[in-house]
Each structure stands twice: as C-alpha cells, then as structure tokens.
Amino acid sequence: MNFTGCRFRNAYAHTSHGLLDVLRWKLGAREKARSSIGPGGAETLPLAEPAAPTRRLSATPAYGSVRLTWIGHSTFLLQHLGRAILTDPIFSDCQPLPISTLRRVRPPGVRLQDLPRIDDVLISHSHYDHLDAPTVRALGGGVRYWVPEGLAGWFRRRKVDSCTEVRWWQSCALSDEIAIHCVPAQHASGRTPFDRNRTHWCGWVLQSAERTVYFAGDTGYSPSFCEIGERFGGFDAAMIPIGAYSPRWLMKPMHLDPAEAVQAHIDIRSKHSIACHWGTYRLTDELLDEPPRELARELALRHIDANDFRVLQPGETLEI
User: Fold this and answer.
1) Using omega within 30 degrees of 0 as the cis cutoff, is the peptide bond preceding 96 cis?
2) Which of 11, 41, 102, 240 has the maximum number of C-beta atoms within 10 A of its C-beta?
3) Which residue would you say has higher pLDDT here, 57 or 255?
4) Whole-angstrom distance, CA of residue 266 vs CA of residue 86
5) pLDDT of residue 247
6) What confidence score (pLDDT) does residue 2 get?
7) Short-list 287, 297, 237, 270, CA closest to 70
8) 120 and 147 in contact (C-beta within 8 Å)?
C-alpha cells in the first residue's frame, strides 16, 4: 500500500531526508558543490527572453499526431485529437518566497495569453514549481484538472470544482478518443513544513488509438519505469526531467540526473523523449546549462542518437 492512513509514500524504499538535511545543504554543502563542477562548467545558457513563436498554436495538428510545445520547466502544451492539455503549468516566479533562486531566469516560451483554449491540466504533485496558484487563477474555471490523490481539496478551497483525483494505475477518459492513466513516480509532496506527503504524486500517460505519450512529472529513478514501459508497451513520446539533481546525496531519491534520465528513456521504451525540469529556476547546485550538456554526454556514451532524446528551447514545438 502507498498510503499509511496519514501520509503517502513511494513504492520503493529510499533514503529519507528532512528539514535538517535541507538546512545542512543550504548552510554548508552548497558552496562546495558549486566549486566542484570542474572544467567546462561555465554557464552558457542564454538567459535573454526567447524569441516569440513564429506562429500561433491555434492551428490543428495533423490528424493522429501529437504536438508538444515546451513552455519551460515541466510545463508542456500537448495538442492531440482536438484537445489542448497543459502539464504542471507555471507562468510566474516560483512561490511562496520572493528570493532569487525561485525567480524565473527565462520567461515562458509561450505567454499565457497566447495559449489556445485549454481543455485539461495534468498536475503531478503539490510542490510550488509544479502547482502554481497564480497560474490556476489565470486559467479560470473552464479547465478540467486531473490530480493525484488528496489534492482536490487544494482546488476546492480556491473555488475550483472541475477537479478529479486519480490514484496510481487508475484510468479516466478525457474524451471519446483519449484516455489518461495515472502512473507511479518516486517523489514527495508538500507546500508547508506541516503537510509533507499528505497528498500523492504521480506521472501521467496520455493514450489514444494513434499515440501513447508519457509525462514523468517529477521523479527519482526506480523500477517503476520498467513497469510503466511494460504495461504500455512503449511510448511514441515521453517528457522526462533532467535537472535539479545536485547535490546527489540529497536529491538522488527524488530527482533524476541526466544519466538516470537516459536509463528511464530506455526502460519505458520511448521512441522520442524531450528533456524538461531544467533551465527555468535555480533550484539546486548544478549550473543552469549543465543538465543538457550532461545529457548529450550520456547519450554519446550509450550510442543513442541525440534526436531520440531532444533538448528543446522554450517555445519550441515538436509534432510526432
């Protein structure tokens, strides 16, 4: 069971870290981690505002294909069979504290007001960089939210009633042609020091007769990737996090590093993977441009074509 009657837990045991470990990192280990990056560690990530999209996203993708637009961090716009779906939308700085590490270093690749009409939003968990109250308010009440267990109350307290909780391995219909499936992730939840793991966390699978797409949410590495790949028989596209992994002694249970992201790509049998959860906020110790460089190195080591695991720029679109 993944619920103890009070708190949710992961399917696979891992080292547990608490507030004291975070304080140890913030007060003592952070500078050491930054100084150990080594040659080639200078940041080259362009931090200027990305170029505006050359075309609006209102055009319909080719029938049966899925259009994926990376907006930034874990926010994607998915367009498939007449529906527009957002994953973990955040278009603002990361609440709740006005400190520099929680400010965006790059603006969203698509402005909120330039989005097409949104039908559905998939939320992976309650952390502030994945569940953003200002963005939820801006999207309004005409959107359907799909969330892991325990999280609907957060929406109800904000007068958002169009919210459905889904448990791991449960399936629901977005439309007559599209189903979604809630799948395990290796992570945690919480928005205050007092509600840790009171709500669940998950990834999502979007499935139609034409395409099967996986959004990993926020996750560490676990055998769940092999289970997900086995259950769905592989994926046409997958959105996999590659950042917020340093220092490893603290972040490994909850965040993939690029090497683990490549292993997840293999485990789930993804034909086309897209990197996310990097280059938007300075959440951890690695440099902003380090995750894609490390991803490229790992793909080369494993003789995997770089086009099989793509790094997009904010606002860039793939149609698969």
Assistant:
1) yes
2) 240
3) 255
4) 25
5) 94
6) 80
7) 237
8) no
- Dist CA 30 CA 28 (whole Å): 6
Output the pLDDT for position 42.
Answer: 55
At residue 176, what is the residue type?
Answer: D
Please measure the distance between the N-terminal and C-terminal CA atoms of the chain and give it in whole angstroms. 36
Contact criterion met (CB below 8 Å) for 164 and 198: no
Cα distance between residue 121 and residue 24, in whole Å: 36
Q: Residue 163 pairs with which residues in a beta bridge?
A: 145
Q: pLDDT tens digit string along 73-92? A: 999 999 999 999 999 999 99
**How many Å apart are CA 164 and CA 242, to the nearest integer?**
28
Find how far residue 290's CA is from the centre of its chain.
18
109-151 per-position pLDDT tens digit? 999 999 999 999 999 999 999 999 999 999 988 999 999 999 9
CA–CA dist 201, 151 (Å, integer):
9
Q: What's the token pair of residue 148?
A: 């892991």
Sequence-ordered alpha helix ranges (H) in the chain = 19-24, 30-35, 133-139, 152-156, 224-232, 248-251, 258-267, 290-301
CA distance 199 to 220: 17
Strand order in the sheet with 66-72: 163-166, 144-148, 120-122, 83-87, 75-80, 66-72, 317-319
Q: Count Cβ atoms within 10 A of the Cβ of residue 214 and give its class: 0-12 exposed, 13-18 middle, 19 or more buried.
A: buried
Q: Alpha-carbon torsion 199, 314, 143, 135, what sign?
A: positive
pLDDT at 36: 39
| Residue 33 banded pLDDT, cuts 50, 70, 90 | very low
Say how far apart CA 262 and CA 173 lie, in whole Å.
30
Percent with pLDDT over 90 in the chain:
78
Confidence of residue 269 (pLDDT cuts 50, 70, 90): very high
Q: Which two tokens stand for residue 286?
A: 């690695």
